[in-house]
Amino acid sequence: xxxxxxxLAFGAAAFTIPLIIHLLNRSKxxxxxxxxxxFLESSMxxxxxxxxxKQLLLLLIRCMIPIxxxxxxxxxxxxxxxxxxxxxxxxxxxxxxxxxxMQSEVDxxxxxxxxxxxxxxxxxxxxxxxxxxxxxxxxxICLILAGDPIDxxxxxxxxxxxxxxxxxxxRKASAGTINLASAVRAGADWLSSSPHPKRHLLVLSxxxxxxxxxxxxxxxxxxxxxxxxxxxxxQWSFLDVANDNGAVGATATTKNSNAGFQSxxxxxxAVTGKLNNSRIGDDVSILSMECVPGLLAPSGNATISxxxxxxxxxxxxxxxxxxxxxxxxxxxxxxxxxxxxxxVRFQWSPKSTGDLEVHVVxxxxxxxxxxxxxxxxxxxxxxxxxxxxxxxxxxxxxKSESDYLRLALTPFSLLRGEPGDLVTTRVVDSGGWxxxxxxxFQAVVCCNIPDLNPEQRRILRSFADAGGGLVICLGDxxxxxxxxxxxxxAAGGLRPGKISARVDWSGRVGTTSTPLFELxxxxxxxxxxxxxxxxxxxxxxxxxxxxxxxFEDSQxxxxxxxxxxxxxxxxxxxxxxxxxNLPSRPAYVPLMQKxxxxxxxxxxxxxxxxxxxxWREEWKLAANGANATVxxxxxxxxxxxxxxxxxxxxxxxxxxxxxxxxxxxxATHGEERRSIATQLPVALRxxxxxxxxxxxxxxxxxxxxxxxxxxxSANDWLNSIRSSWGGKxxxxxxxxxxLVMFLAEMYLQQSMNARLAKTAHATxxxxxxxxxxxxxx
Amino acid sequence: MPANLLFRWLKxxxxxxxxxxxxxxxxxxxxxxxxxxxxxxxGASVDFKEHRPYVHGDEIRSIDWKLFGKTxxxxxxxxxxxxxxxxxxxxxxxxxxxxxxxxxxxxxKHEYSVRLAACLAYLLISQQDSVGLxxxxxxxxxxxxxxxxxxxxxxxxxxxxxxxxNGETDLGTVLQELLSICRRRGHVILISDxxxxxxxxxxxxxxxxxxxxxxVVFQVxxxxxxxxxxxxxxxFRSLEKTEDQLLIDPSSLRQRYLENVKSFQTALREGCxxxxxxxxPVRTSESFSSVVANYLVQRGRA
Lengths: 777, 302
Known about the structure:
By secondary structure, chain A is α/β, with parallel strands linked by helices.
């Protein structure tokens, strides 16, 4: 047991005050010459003993009051939570930085065998494990992986979470940069509804300078204010897992090496911080990677480019490997100058159809092996048949509405006469098609058709419902007043909303890219240069948020939505150069191909999501009952079994609330197989470039600036928590005891006074009664 | 009339109030001179009482011859004879009577008793009754025989004024000694706090009653002695035995003390009531003239 305010414990000596008062009172007395001694003497004999113990009890209580007061104010606590049973349960949100830099190794000694090296993430999980092991069992813990996108591992008891954390330590880093703001907000949200009044948020990070230095400090300060302004203020702490102090005891080997180092350096923290920076040396990483195109035919050609950074101050010669699936396809050796980056490019042609993970791997052993590999997904498909219904078909070359579209969709066959196109097209007039024809096609593109009769609309709708893709481009021939009489999507039609007449409008498309029409960086840049002169506007009727691309004034341009089992895209401009100069832009070809790829949606069971987006599947439960599970295979070859909630058979199941690993994940349930490809949009493809870390002193400075408690290890943090919040709060019992003592003192005092007053009254009545009688008479 | 002495002891309002009162004895008391009190002796007097038939042995001169002339029967004519009351005031001057309380207007119990005695003496002498005075502690200290002369009041008051409180109390013995002084029928007025053994006091009072004395006890106590209001730690020094002292916490003893006082009062009251003695508890905070007045009103109605 210890005292938080040990000095106040000396206040217990105040118990002597009642004793002194008692003794002083004994030496001070009145003297009265008294006649009625005979009554006093007989009283003495009877009362002496009874009065004495009551007086003693009162004295004891009065002595206990200052003792208890002093002890309560000194706040005694039992230090070990475990020893004190349940202790004081707390709610703890652990924000774990699992960005790429956390894959750096704790010990930078290059001589050590790679197998013995421990990553910062691994060390962080070990620290978390240590904390979880020492927290009171009834505490609630929420683990938030702070890498972008964040991943919240809901409320758990420490014991439950320990298992998960041990698995986490084996996991490879999958996230990009740390998204501290989202993670801390998620932690604060969780804590605000937590069951315990003691709420703490612990941030474990390597404190990279680029994310924590002066430019980001304002963000951190805002977060700090946000935490303080919570209804129940949340304390937060920083645990710097990259400092070498904390590494002591991590493993036997690191302990020895660090112990020697520290003994020679009095200010170990500051020196080790510099050491980290100077040894950042042999570190290279892949900054970004692109596969163009992402969808191609078996005879097509894909270009895979990767940007590689050398963080060290030396020239690096690095073998770069292209891996498709598990097979090494190509190996190049590149030279990168100190602290510079370069691009490496691979050409690859698929031989068979299917979905493939493409990895670019740096075949080198450096301090952050996690960022030496980057994955993307390439889908290889057999060419699909597309019917193009042209409402403005002409004999002259490049005058028809669909000419540019055909060029964009089949560039190889039309321009070079080579195979490799994703689709084959057939163009017909507005009336030149029927229901029977559609069976040969997987997608239909309507270009600038004046109107569709009800039968045609029904045919197209049922085509889409059956899984076909539908692209509808507007144009100058469109009779909007008639189009607006079409059935809406909700009513079994095609029209997503009210379409305005074609108007003059000068502008561009917005720059926001959506993962549905994932375009390369170059294509996005090119798309922004497209100028529009005319357009239609769309007033969406469906309450669902639309996805697609908007004009720069936020009016929808490309609107994508599911229609039955198929997909539909509306384009609010023409697909030729009538409304814009888009066909002359380089982005036109990939955009149109992406559109088709989106609506083609092959094969069934294939989906693409961005990291952080929940992976939900609608599956019918197999016949084998309540214990059904779904097997999930993740891109890093790890597996999981997701139990099926028994109360929702046939409903959607969330296989992964927040997928983070890029690549293809596969889920199997009975005979059914589903896959997702987790891909980052180009705009979000950032990786940590700067590996400079804050020194320990800088972390402490930062912590003091944002009212956080700095810690160097789990035990350090636990000690700080214990000293601020105590283990078993004995002092509350002292307050209770104090209250009891006060009540007892008041009761004793009052009872004695009351008895005296009662007897006095009674006696006075007896003595005075004769006189009163006389008075009455 | 020793007006100066009298005024020293009696306040004008007491003086006026007492002089309006008349001392009426309940029973006929034997007296030397005719007074306001009825005598048991029937003799030649002016107040006719009754006729009764003559029996053998009656004095011939008491026969009412006029009635014999009218009725031809012998009747005896009886008259009431008025006598003077013979009262002895016994004032306790033991040490315990020296106690002066905080609420008694600065009067000790003895001073109060002396005033009460003076008051009674003046009243009795003013109605031509004989008044004697006895002061006592463990035994009788002074004895002023009963006289009815107005000048006698001066002697009584001087004796009272010179009395000193000293020593212990032994009221039982004193009252037995009193038997030798009060041989004739009369009144004994005892003014004392009656501290001591209540049984012994009762016994002595019973003997007085048996000796044809009507006894009135004014038990004088201070308010402090009745309700024991002390709370601070106090040294109580005995007024009777100087070596006797107690250092106590009064609040702790208070209840028991009050019980003791109560049981003592009860014992005394019951003892008096058994012997048809009037016990009048008096507090020194009360006006003594009103005490006397109330007592006399009560007696007059009895």
